[in-house]
Amino acid sequence: MDIVNLENEAVLLLERLLEIPRTSRDEGKAADLLQDFMAGRYGLETRRHGCNLWALAPNYDPSRKTLLLNAHIDTVKPVAGWTFEPFSATRVGDRIYGLGSNDDGASLVTLLQAFRHLCNTTQAYNLAFLASCEEEVSGKGGLESVLPLLPPVDTALVGEPTCMQPAVAEKGLMVLDVTEHGKSGHAARDEGDNAIYKAVRDIEWFRSHRWDRQSPLLGDVKMTVTMVNAGTQHNVIPDTCTFTVDIRSNECYTNRELFSLVCPCIEGEAKARSFRLNSSKIDPSHPIVRRLTAMGKVPFGSPTLSDQALMPFPSLKMGPGDSSRSHTADEYVCIPEIRGAIEDYITLLDGLRL
Prior knowledge:
The chain is an alpha+beta fold and 354 residues long. The chain contains 8 helices and 18 strands. The longest helix has 18 residues.
């Protein structure tokens, strides 16, 4: 199967996908199209759970290790400022514009083409391909729901826009909702207990606190207050104030540990929405990392979250496109990036020993 054919198939599938709105939890029509390509056009034995699709390369052997190729189908909602139609594939020169072209369509279609090619080869490991849903919202109907249905996975390669450089670590995510309690009163008199002033002190702590454990790849834990809400009218002292904190953890802390350390340091009542999205990393001595380094790739740590946070096995992410284009107006991917990704994936995976 030659690279030109694989590139053409990748571009065709990408452009078809871009014509279908597929925001998180609304991926059904896109999953239908992808299933038509995988099972009908490519003849892959395709399984489906909800909007998650997967296939195994021929000659699966439970005695061998299994490598999972994963990318997500869904997109965020379009932001304001698009000059092209977001739910369309618009070619300008060597660029393809459209919502999800960069995140994560290009990775999805190039990993699939690499998988097709490798299905016709003999490898020392089992290979699986998974197109998952609900990644952008870390939904429980996505990768988390389908992993128990797959054979045991030893290592995963996650397709995300990284300029085809390997992200060997990524930050986790924990969202805190903090409530400050005061006492209402008339603003004209010296009475009440202003919950906003209590929130200001805690917000300053989140802004200025520095954690002891730093990561060589991911740096510090990052805490950012992103939403604040208080008050009912101008002349009433507010008795409650709520704010939201976005915490990006490094691999030196679990989210539960961070939560236990935060609570004694603030006056407000903190509640975590979830502890499940922890930081992840892969050992630099892992065979897949060593092979990437031998290819001239430069490992790095990623500040953005992916479905790696839900994977209980070693994983890394690498894909065509650039993370800076994700979730932006006029998102695009370049056709040469698609071809280069297919070539790099095949070079990495053909002959790999786990």
